[in-house]
Amino acid sequence: MAVLLFEILLNATSMFNHGNVRLPARLDRWLRLVVVTPDMHRVHHSIVRQETDSNFGFNLPWWNRLFGTY
């Protein structure tokens, strides 16, 4: 049951942060404190090398902040 719940959560957050969705700036600013937003994750897919090597967090932004990759 734990694996199933994890997979559902992982896939839901993946669809959200890979979605081509523009959130209102204020909502995005608050949401990115808790989850990786599409705008935050979009930088990871940039063609600029410095940006590509950042924002590795898949669903939680805390790892990027902790390891300096935000």
List keywords for this structure.
70 residues; globular; mainly alpha; 56% helix; 5 helices; 0% strand
List the helices and strands and how they pair.
Layout: H1 2-18, H2 25-31, H3 38-42, H4 49-52, H5 62-67
In short:
This protein is mainly alpha-helical and 70 residues long.
Mean pLDDT: 89
Helix content: 55-70%
User: How many domains is the backbone divided into?
Assistant: 1
Distance from N terminus to C terminus (CA atoms, Å) equals: 32 Å
What does the overall shape look like?
Answer: globular
Class from helix and strand fractions: mainly alpha
In N-to-C order, the SSE pattern is: HHHHH
For the largest beta-sheet, the strand count, sense and barrel status come to: none
What's the number of helices?
Answer: 5
Number of strands: 0
Strand proportion, as a percent range, falls in under 5%
User: Regions with pLDDT < 50 over 5+ consecutive residues?
Assistant: none
Q: What does it look like?
A:
By secondary structure, the protein is mainly α. It has one domain. The chain contains five helices and no strands. The termini are far apart.
